From TrEMBL, chains A, B:
One MF term in the entry's GO annotations: prephenate dehydrogenase (NAD+) activity
Signal peptide region: none
A GO biological-process term: tyrosine biosynthetic process
Provenance organism: Catellatospora chokoriensis
Keyword flag Transport: no
Name of the molecule in the record: Prephenate dehydrogenase
Keywords: Oxidoreductase
PANTHER family per UniProt: PREPHENATE DEHYDROGENASE, PREPHENATE DEHYDROGENASE [NADP(+)]
Domain Prephenate/arogenate dehydrogenase: 1-278
Amino acid sequence: MRALSAAGHRVLGFDADPETRATARSAAARVPAAQRWQITATIRDAAADAELVVLAVPLPALDDVLDALTACGYHGLITDVTSVKGPVREAVAARLRRAANPLAGFVGGHPMTGKSVSGFASGDPALFTGCAWVLCLDEATGLDDWLTVAGLITALGARVVPATSAEHDRAVAVISHVPHLLALALAATAASDPLALTLAAGSFRDGTRVAGSRPELVAAMCGGNAAAVLTALGDVQERLDEAAKALEGRDPLRAIRDWAKDGHAARQAWPPAPGRPEQVPVRVETLLRLGRAGGWITEVAADRRTVTAFLPVEGE
Amino acid sequence: MRALSAAGHRVLGFDADPETRATARSAAARVPAAQRWQITATIRDAAADAELVVLAVPLPALDDVLDALTACGYHGLITDVTSVKGPVREAVAARLRRAANPLAGFVGGHPMTGKSVSGFASGDPALFTGCAWVLCLDEATGLDDWLTVAGLITALGARVVPATSAEHDRAVAVISHVPHLLALALAATAASDPLALTLAAGSFRDGTRVAGSRPELVAAMCGGNAAAVLTALGDVQERLDEAAKALEGRDPLRAIRDWAKDGHAARQAWPPAPGRPEQVPVRVETLLRLGRAGGWITEVAADRRTVTAFLPVEGE
């Protein structure tokens, strides 16, 4: 809401919690009048004249909110910012099949940014500047709807990454969900040794930081993406098995040094730097290939026939 | 050198690299005259009148330096700051048996602090303030030698943690060596998916930070501590197997939430806060019990009969 309002859009918002609505109303009073969002008393009031509805609710609340939207006859475009995309796509598809007034269009989204603090008061209109924002291009996604949302989001300064829901869920399993499991396993292992906890410094602090996330949140992320998390966890465990073999061998120093090279090179090359901007034709396969190669788009052309795209270049 | 000089000790230093010696000499010229260290041209010159020699060399260089020290007839106390203590203890013991002039005393040490940048120019006299500094109390360690080094180091503002070499090596396997292996395995797994690398944000950044350490350093740490690292890695892998089972089960959300509780609680309670200071009698078993309970000492009494000790108290 803060980012869209600051970008000059007319924004109406609703939250199930009256206290959050009150906080959001007072916060609006503190921004320039032209950038002020409005808080409505019902979902119906918020959606009545909307061209786009952004669902910013956790996965377990999604079904109810989609039902409320169809119940009030909303026919416009919908996007969301939930961290797992397969279950969201399925929830929307189930409603499209069932609803007397099918939703006009749905584009699943996931901005790869956030803060360690929650609540409306922690919002920041600049939160999305430069962040990667996945927009799902699934078989059921209308390319025109996708371009509409992509245009809106690139205009906020985010880098839009095209991917299927399945590709997104596999990628976040590796870079977000499994890291939580590793952090929790490490913290739990250290817990049995008070001496270790007293000696722990930087590598333990960073390696376990996300173990501070609430177990409910970790469960929602990993449990909602179980198949992809299992695959990614299996890959990591395989590499750890190789490390164990290296340590058991006759020359552990040399074996661990060789084993460490891939991971070290990957980390040194991260984050990927952008190559030169390219004008890329708007075709589903071309966009998905761009996303698979680690690319992103920063602009949708006015005629919607091309997008401005970047591919990553090798780091050092 | 910087910390000991700043604390008013007379410090002489030697480094095998002439460039490092030059850097250390010019750096000395920039501190107040009373706090100036001297750089010598040989190990012999540095050790000639020393009461204590601090070995700050990597494990592979240790044998040569110990040989040079015995060759020049050094009879004083020695301590070191190497990150694995078992192999250091064995190297010293081998020389004690062999040398015509046995070393008077050895106390293995490991300050749990550091910087991501190396070299004399990166030194900081305040680096040890508040850090945990393990001093090994093995069977061969003279308690009087241990108290001498402990007194020196607590006066630098560090928290001295008594532990056997084996206890130290087991603890750092969990809190330092295994975190490096987890970070490397995670980074290597993500490397095969450019989409994942583009989406990666905070949890990947922190979870893989130490994968940026040079493979040679990781190999020296893990390879020099292979048995303890294997045990700790096995414990972490067992917990990851449990997470996999939780994900495969009928209710992955509830199972992961329950699985996550131990690690979450451990991370929330870390770092441990100090309890009230206590005067503890100087006895080997008492000191080792203190270390095993996660405690540390901040002062050695002038009569050397007690130390000021702290035990950790439960976090939130």
